[in-house]
Structures are given as structure tokens and as C-alpha cells.
Specification:
Elements: H1 6-22, E1 28-32, H2 38-46, E2 51-53, E3 55-56, H3 61-71, E4 80-81, E5 94-100, H4 108-116, H5 118-121, E6 122-132, E7 134-135, H6 143-155, E8 162-163, H7 164-173, E9 177-184, E10 188-194
Parallel strand pairs: 1-2, 1-5, 3-4, 5-6, 7-8
Antiparallel strand pairs: 6-10, 9-10
Length: about 200
């Protein structure tokens, strides 16, 4: 049995609705932290004009590779081993980058590294989409997000829901400006940035 995320099943349709518009002129997408690969398979299947390059840390590649191999889609190549803190990125640069439910798992220092490396990953005219929960003005948007944050910090004090203002500032330093902040189910957002 492959690893399975119910959250991915629940949110893939509303995310796809946004990506269909945002990535309509893109050709190559790099997904950071592809996890189980459910998003990669779903989006590659429904966006056949895109080459969807999944990636994750080496420790998580086994299930991801198996799901992508099973999907057998022409526009979904084998995943890349990519650790933001150490891996050299030797693949072709992309004109779109997507990541879901990663910023609250990464320690803030690694979130900063991710944004510092965007120029390494992306072509000059790139789109950037980030999905997940965010705080506004340091405040949780729901009691469920506050509980989720508490759960994260019990696992690791360096995890936690990020302030959207801090994320926007990091993106701006990398030359990406917020285009739209999409409301998503379950108190999540999809942030669309463009350079």
C-alpha cells in the first residue's frame, strides 16, 4: 500500500481550479515537497501541457517514486531528490513552482533558504503558488488552525503556521510579488506570486 494523505484528496480539486488559470501558459513546474505524490499525479493528469517535476527529500522518495511510476504519465517524470538545505539543483530551470503544506513543517530558517534559492530553480518570468494555512497580523484565522499549530509545535517547536506578511516579504526579496490570495477549504489559502 502506498502512503496516502486524506488532506490531499480533499484539497486537490480546489487547488487544481486555481492552477488551471495560473499555470495556463507555463511549461515546466517544480513541486517542492511532493510527499505522497497524490497532488503531482492529479495535477499532471489534468494539466497535460505541463511537465510536472515532483521532488522531495531523499528519505521520502520511495513512496513518491512508486506512485509516479504507477501513474505512468508522459508529463510526470521520476521525482528529484531535493533537500533545500543541501541538494544541488541540476535540473532545467522552471517557469512555475508549486508547494503545498510545507512552510509550516520547515523550520523558519529553511523557509528562508527556500526563498533564497528561487532564482536557482526558476526562470525570470516564473509563477509561484504556495498552498497551506497562514496567520494574518500574527493572528490565527480559526480555532482549528490554532489547535493545528499547537499540535505542530508539540512535534517540533520549530514548526508552526507562518505569518503571511513574513512570507510576502521573503517572496518580495526574491523578486516575486503577490498577485492573489485565494481562499481555500479548511481554513487554507493558495498564494499566487509572480516575478
Amino acid at each position: 500500500m502506498l502512503a496516502f494523505s486524506q488532506a490531499c484528496e480533499n484539497n486537490k480539486a480546489p487547488i487544481l481550479q486555481v492552477l488551471t488559470q495560473v499555470f495556463q501558459h507555463s511549461k515546466r513546474v517544480l513541486e517542492i515537497g511532493s510527499g505522497t505524490g497524490q497532488h503531482a499525479v492529479h495535477f499532471a493528469k489534468h494539466l497535460p501541457h505541463l511537465n510536472w517535476q515532483s521532488s522531495d527529500q531523499p528519505a521520502y522518495l520511495s513512496d513518491l517514486s512508486a506512485r509516479i511510476q504507477q501513474a505512468n504519465l508522459a508529463n510526470l517524470p521520476a521525482p528529484l531528490a531535493l533537500d533545500i538545505t543541501s541538494s544541488v539543483f541540476s535540473a532545467e530551470k522552471v517557469d512555475a513552482l508549486f508547494t503545498a503544506n510545507t512552510l509550516h513543517i520547515m523550520p523558519w530558517q529553511i523557509v528562508e533558504q527556500l526563498f533564497q534559492r528561487l532564482n536557482e530553480f526558476c526562470l525570470p518570468e516564473a509563477q509561484l503558488c504556495i498552498y497551506g494555512p497562514f496567520n494574518y497580523n500574527g493572528q490565527f484565522t480559526s480555532t482549528s488552525n490554532a489547535s493545528f499549530n499547537q499540535h505542530l509545535q508539540q512535534r517540533d517547536p520549530l514548526m508552526g503556521i507562518r505569518n503571511i506578511e513574513d512570507v510576502i516579504a521573503l517572496a518580495a526579496k526574491a523578486g516575486f510579488n503577490l498577485q492573489q490570495d485565494h481562499d481555500m477549504p479548511a481554513n487554507n489559502r493558495l498564494l499566487h506570486f509572480k516575478r
